[in-house]
Design brief:
The complex is a heterodimer of chains A (164) and B (798). Chain A has 2 domains: 6-82, Roll (Ubiquitin-like (UB roll)); 86-163, DNA polymerase, domain 1 (Orthogonal Bundle), CATH 1.10.150.120. Chain A contains 6 helices and 5 strands, in the order ββαβββααααα. Chain A has helices spanning 27-34, 79-85, 89-97, 107-118, 126-132, 144-163; strands spanning 6-12, 15-21, 53-56, 59-62, 75-77. In chain A, strand 3 and strand 4 (59-62) form a beta hairpin. In chain A, helix 3 (89-97) crosses helix 6 (144-163). Chain A is globular. The relative contact order of chain A is 0.15. The mean pLDDT of chain A is 97. With 798 residues, chain B is an alpha+beta fold. Chain B is built from 18 helices and 30 strands. In chain B, the strands form 8 sheets. Chain B has a 7-stranded mixed sheet with strand order 3-5-1-13-10-11-12, sandwiched between helices. In chain B, helix 8 packs parallel to helix 9. The longest helix of chain B has 28 residues, at 559-586. The radius of gyration of chain B is 28 Å and the shape is globular. The chains are: A alpha+beta (164), B alpha+beta (798). The interface between A and B is large, with 66 and 63 residues.
Chain lengths: 164, 798
């Protein structure tokens, strides 16, 4: 059913926004269609592939399993925001150098998911990395290069931490 | 893990002072993708753009009695509802045949079903609205009345006289058949000490690109021109097809392909709903967008690999293979897919089975039949995974039967490394392969003897691990022998146009496309090396029929070997043009000059003479200062097509090491190895990542992926939750090794690497599972995917 809308206020990538959205509209459709934040991708629309992973109030969520109206008052961060702030620049650089992305469609969601693991601190083992990204499907790389890149960044961040 | 820094060049023959050949330089477009700044077709919006959704047949086979669209018209945002009959006025149907697959036949396929739907998911009506959601709302209001017809779903009975014929005009349900009989097969089986016979089943599966198929078609009536933004692997092929079926000239059609969210062969075909979208744009005179949702993807993206192969091998006690025989049967859906046909996969199985081995006796038959399921066509490694699994499965069963180590049996039968040029028993021409070198490399890399000892030790503790191998050959760098000779307007040549700009930077436009494999990096490496500039001064343009040379695109592992060579040749041509000007400016013989690191230098000694920026400044802004009669040509175009060999075959060998939980039937992959020989390696990292990604897709086939249909032709698991693809936690680390046998067909000597991983992985995993279970007396598993319940059944536990 279309036509009926609700008003929401939220913060997206640090910007305060007011919007009228249909109650049925998913968060990822809202981000892509209404805000032109096309870095969040739609892969399966039923919560399996992880391509639409974004951060809401600090936790990663599936943009296709959350409705935009549920984000009233929330703080949403997408790959555009994570990139512009530099928070994941080292991950993005490592993905580039290790060729841990091919078509790149899963990458924004993958980066958000990996950052969720790494910001807990410590150096996760390869099995732990693999487990954590298992909700993010990559059809191109076979995952090995992604695990390599994540492991390298975890080690580099730990070294930086020690120097501090 | 340490990320390797850029490696120094290693290939002396191609080495130039600033060579990028053989170096793991990063791809130029990765920050864009990593930062979410890609431009996928899903992201494209245009002024006045409308969205189409399709009403799709819920039946596998049904007569369309009526379509009522009256009540749709009041639906919010509604623009148009268009049936197949209406669309037929704008677009002609197509028939997916190739003349070199003798006897292959198919029926005309329309963009939207007319009168009859032939598979569950075929579009029967298009609804266009202002948003996709509104188009889907309106679809709900279209009333279609169907008369269900008997569905043909079992390939085994598709040719029985009592089975209904899907297309009456064809006379039967046979699409294509081929028979081959070489040597003295019956005699060879009689002379064998052991004969093994078994039936292999391959589960129908699909590519599951993360970005579903997407297209935006924009018919501009004022200039009578169609611009199509499409996630495709072959923009020029699609330009030809859109033009042909809309009655336009090529000049009236532009196909633009920016970023593509995965392809794997899925996005190199003609899809009825994409053709319909283009026709709708022409009809409605405005941009129309179609993005398949995941449910639509499962019932319309091409499926592949649905084969039943009866295989037979004869061996002597000394390990000599005396004969191979296969009988292949495959059901492809109701139409042969246009324009590459659905006969290629079966044809490849006949061509490739037994391919690595020197065995003079081979008999094969294949039959390709129509059925009322989604269409099948070429998916990554087309036919290879099946031919390899059958060949290698038979070999390991034979080895077990005569009590010989499976690696040793292969060693005794693989074509000798000094036998080239030669050809396979099926007639494939091999320029140069390295089976024995690959086997030795793999043996050492995996520490085979050590693993066997570990396996034996653990069995005593009730832990069942298996080691499985698969040798393979792979078709790459196809010449016109693949499609062109059969009448398809799919080019096998490719081109590169290079241009020196006024600041000394170089741009290159190429006909090959980028879907993540790294074609842009390879083209940039070849050009930077041949011309003589730092790679960060090279910019690559792909995927635009208005602005790139005519080319085939990226499929059949052709982008590096063919597109790379074209860029190499274009770089050399531009260097010659530039040095001619430099010679005139410097009063020097151009032969005595070279370009290194963006500077014209003395070839001997390397003295810097003239920066390219200065040369370009003079050529573009002060040509008056050049000697009379000297015209600078700072652009060059070169094309390349393989001519000496129909295909550049590659080869290699894979091994899988895994553990089977004999109580649950679960398989834990411990490690995977692949040694391959793709000739000259332009970018080692990209080759390895093609291998790894390919291996994992092959593992998916072996363990998880299966489009499961019921006997009424209903797909039972058409969503990502029920259709399983490999996830990170289940996948092993994959170690890659290389042998290098360059092709002499090109200067670079590069062959393809995109499909080797997928070709060999399913067979090696199958063999490893059977190796693990052999001491338990389990019946060999030959029915992919090997799910836990099949494994428990083989063990007699359920």
């Amino acid at each position: 059913m279309s036509g009926y809308t609700l008003d929401i206020s939220l913060t997206v990538n640090g910007e305060r926004l007011n919007a009228h959205v249909e109650p049925r509209k998913t968060l990822v459709d809202f981000l892509r269609d209404d805000l032109s934040l096309t870095g969040s991708h739609v892969g399966c629309e039923h919560g399996v592939c992880g391509a639409c992973t974004v951060r809401v109030n600090g936790a990663i969520v599936r943009g296709c399993l959350m409705l935009a109206v549920q984000c009233d008052g929330a703080t949403v961060e997408t790959i555009e925001g994570l990139s512009d702030s530099g928070e994941v620049a080292d991950l993005q650089k490592a993905f580039e150098r290790r060729n841990a992305l091919q078509c790149g469609y899963c990458t924004p969601g993958m980066i958000a998911t990996v950052q969720d693991l790494l910001k807990r601190g410590g150096v996760p083992g390869r099995e732990e990395i693999r487990e954590h990204i298992s909700g993010n499907y990559c059809r191109c790389t076979g995952y090995h290069a992604i695990v390599d890149a994540v492991e390298a960044v975890a080690q580099a961040r730990a070294r930086t931490q020690m120097k501090k | 893990m340490k990320i390797a820094e850029d490696s120094p060049p290693t290939l002396a023959a191609l080495d130039r002072p600033n060579s990028y050949i053989g170096r793991s330089v990063p791809r130029p477009n990765l920050q864009r993708l990593a930062q979410g700044r890609g431009q996928y077709v899903s992201d494209v919006t245009l002024p006045r753009m409308a969205h189409v959704a399709f009403v799709r047949s819920p039946h596998a086979h049904a007569r369309i009695v009526s379509i009522a669209t009256e009540s749709v018209k009041k639906s919010p945002g509604f623009i148009a509802a268009v049936t197949g009959a209406e669309l037929a006025k704008v677009m002609t149907p197509w028939v997916g045949v190739l003349t070199h697959l003798k006897g292959l036949k198919s029926a005309p396929q329309p963009p939207i079903a007319v009168e009859r739907a032939c598979w569950q998911g075929e579009a029967v009506c298009a609804v266009v609205a202002h948003t996709r959601a509104e188009a889907e709302d309106a679809c709900e209001l279209v009333e279609v009345s169907y008369e269900e017809l008997p569905a043909v779903t079992d390939p085994e009975t598709a040719l029985d006289p009592k089975t209904p014929v899907i297309h009456a005009s064809l006379g039967d349900n046979l699409c294509f058949e081929r028979k081959l009989d070489v040597g003295a097969v019956d005699k060879a089986f009689v002379e064998a000490d052991a004969v093994v016979e078994t039936t292999f089943m391959f589960g129908r599966h699909t590519g599951v690109t993360n970005e579903p198929r997407a297209i935006v078609a924009d018919w501009n009536a004022s200039e009578q021109r169609m611009t199509v933004y499409q996630g495709t692997q072959a923009p020029h092929m699609m330009q030809d097809l859109f033009a042909k079926h809309l009655g336009l000239h090529h000049q009236q059609v532009r196909v633009v392909t920016k970023d593509v969210g995965g392809s794997f062969g899925i996005k190199v075909h003609t899809y009825a709903d994409e053709m319909a979208t283009v026709a709708l744009s022409k009809l409605l005179k405005r941009p129309v967008k179609f993005v398949a949702d995941r449910i639509e993807s499962f019932v319309t993206d091409i499926h592949a690999r649905d084969h039943r192969v009866k295989g037979k091998i004869g061996v002597r006690n000394d390990g000599t293979i005396t004969a191979f025989e296969i009988d292949d049967l495959t059901g492809i859906g109701p139409y042969s897919v246009y324009p590459r046909t659905s006969g290629i996969e079966a044809n490849q199985i006949v061509n490739l089975t037994g391919g690595p081995y020197a065995c003079p006796n081979y008999r094969a038959q294949t039959r390709v039949v129509f059925q009322n399921k989604n269409v099948m066509c070429q998916y990554r490694a087309v036919g290879h995974p099946i031919a390899v699994a059958v060949t290698e499965g038979l070999i390991e069963l034979a080895a077990a039967k005569i009590g010989m180590d499976p690696l040793e049996l292969r060693r005794r039968n693989l074509i000798a490394d000094d036998a080239y040029p030669t050809q396979s028993t099926s007639g494939l021409k091999f320029e140069r392969l390295s089976h024995h070198e690959s086997l030795a490399h793999l043996d050492a890399m995996m520490n085979y003897a050590g693993l066997r000892a570990e396996q034996k030790r653990l069995r005593e503790d009730g832990i069942y691990r298996g080691i499985g191998f698969a040798s393979f050959i792979e078709v790459t760098n196809p010449s016109a022998a693949f499609y062109g000779v059969g009448g398809a307007r799919i080019t096998s040549q490719d081109g590169a146009t290079v241009k020196l700009d006024a600041q000394g930077f170089v741009s290159v436009a190429t006909g090959v496309t980028e879907q993540g494999q790294g074609a842009e990096a390879v083209v940039a490496q070849c050009l930077a090396t041949a011309f003589g500039v730092p790679i960060d001064k090279v910019r690559v343009t792909t995927g635009d029929t208005d602005n790139t040379p005519y080319g085939g695109g990226t499929w059949a592992s052709r982008a590096a070997g063919i597109g790379g060579e074209a860029a190499w040749q274009a770089g050399k041509a531009l260097r010659a043009n530039v040095l001619a000007i430099a010679g005139a400016m410097l009063q020097t013989n151009p032969e005595a000059l070279d370009i290194r690191n963006g500077v014209v230098v003395d070839k001997a000694g390397g003295n810097e003479r003239l920066p390219l920026e200065e040369l370009a400044r003079v050529a573009y802004f002060r040509p008056d200062t050049l000697p009379a009669g000297i015209q600078a040509e700072l652009m060059a175009t070169r094309h390349y097509v393989p001519r000496a060999w129909p295909f550049a075959f590659t080869n290699g060998m894979q091994a899988s090491y895994l553990e089977v939980d004999v109580d649950t039937g679960f398989v834990k992959l411990l490690k995977h190895w692949c040694v391959e020989d793709c000739g000259t390696i332009i970018n080692p990292q990209l080759v390895d990542e093609q291998i790894r990604g390919g291996v994992v897709q092959g593992i998916g086939a072996a363990l998880f992926e299966h489009c499961r249909y019921d006997d009424r032709g209903q797909l039972l698991n058409g969503n990502m939750a029920d259709y399983l693809v490999p996830m990170a936690a289940e996948m092993p680390d994959i170690e890659c090794g290389h042998c290098v046998s360059p092709t002499g067909d090109s200067e670079l000597g590069a062959k393809g690497a995109g499909e080797a991983g997928t070709a060999g992985a399913p067979g090696s995993v199958m063999n490893a599972i059977n190796d693990a279970l052999r001491p338990l007396g389990a019946k060999p598993l030959t029915d992919m995917p090997f799910t836990p319940d099949k494994i428990l059944r083989a063990l007699g536990k359920v």
